[in-house]
Amino acid sequence: MLRRVLRPLAVAMLLLQAAPPVLAQEVLDTDPNTLAPSKDPKRTANGLAQTPPMGWNSWNKFGCNVNEEVIRETADAIASNGMKAAGYEYIVIDDCWHGTRDANGFITEDRTRFPRGLTALGNYIHAKGLKFGIYSDAGTKTCGGRPGSQGHEYQDALQYARWGVDYLKYDWCSTGVRNAEEAYATMADALRATGRPILFSLCEWGNSRPWLWGEKIGNMWRTTGDITDKWEGKHGYSWGVASIVDLNEPLWPFAGPGHWNDPDMLEVGNGGLTEAEYRAHFSLWAMMAAPLIAGNNVADMTQATRDILLNREVIAVDQDPLGVQGHRVTRVGKQEVWVKPMADGGRVLLLWNRGDKPTRIVADWAMLGLPASVKMRGRNVWSHRDLGQLSSSYQAEVAPHDVIMIVLGGESSI
Ligand code: GLA
To answer: Which domain holds residue 131?
Structure first.
């Protein structure tokens, strides 16, 4: 009798014990990847940045020493020195603008550095026909130790929109075990919820391969650690220009209109490189369809710096609407040949001498995937000279660490 009573009880208890594994199985059956926002086929980025973003950012030159005067002087310079007309549009305040959070958790600006406040600064920038960019971080603190946006994403996005912000660079310090894709998707949603078009720049240094998931979240993603004003090599957490190129180049298939690989901001004009090296730096960024975010003191530029940053023919290569990132087609020792296809059917050819001696570099049409019989008009976009009709190959002597950049067009057969 006792057995008859106890047995079903034991079975019931066993069933109860069995319940948790059944539930656990159900949970496991839901693939967490299907819940990740960027895997949602309906998710799209914001439609901005159909060509690589152009502008200026305070970090490379001013670091943490930003203030209202620096930003106003920069906006004045860009509006009047030809940069605005050449396409430089966003004025971005990087780290260290932040004050504390107010009693309701809203971020405030540092009123010692920005006494008139960011609304007034945004108005000033907009009145010049330029756009206003700002910086935050997906962790608890920015890299400069200011308050980060973790747990305040929607509040911060709302505050930026109130200030009239048009661009957010979002860094990756103090993020602990946060999942990068989730963290960036949360801020993308918060920005979208403001109803204001805000270009979203992911600054996660390439750690979680943002080129694989960033397209539906933002408009550009850093592919590397920080750039430094040196030619090559790794220097602490930073990389020289030529080394950044090697890291960013293989990612060319992931770039396109609205979503760009970002090999970091320009060092042109900051004084650490030769004129040839800065010319190579700017040309390679244009070949890689990289965002052109100047990082020098634009209110005080040499003519040589001006000639590089304002070279409209090189900028046109960067800004070509086809939006295909150019890449290296041959590398022999220190000689490289690069090609970028253009919307009009033309191609841009870059000869890059990474070595320390002048060298002759030959680019065969075969490297461009063309038969030798094809004729094309050539134009050197640094000397601003037409080269007439070219066929089968182009070759030139290239100075050390320098480039020769040729736009080829009007293809015809001999
Ligand atoms: C990181 C970023 C830099 C810059 C600094 C600011 O290092 O990669 O581009 O924004 O933080 O602290």
So the answer is: 54-318
- How crowded is residue 148: how many other Cβ atoms within 10 Å of its Cβ? 24
CATH number for the domain including 103? 3.20.20.70
Mutate to test the pocket of ligand 1, among 56, 60, 65, 94 (most ligand atoms within 8 A of CB): 94
Q: For 99-110, what is each residue's pLDDT tens digit?
A: 999 999 999 999
Q: Is 320 a catalytic residue?
A: no
Residue 222 above 60 pLDDT? yes
3-state DSSP percent of the chain in helix, strand and coil, to 5: 35, 25, 40
Pick from 317, 281, 312, 318: nearest CA to 296: 281
Q: Name the closest-CA residue to atom 3, ligand 1.
A: 226
Rounded Cα gap, residues 84 and 54, in angstroms: 9
CB of 94 shorter than 6 A to ligand 1: yes
Q: What is the largest CA-CA distance in the chain?
A: 107
Residues 276, 390 within the same domain: no
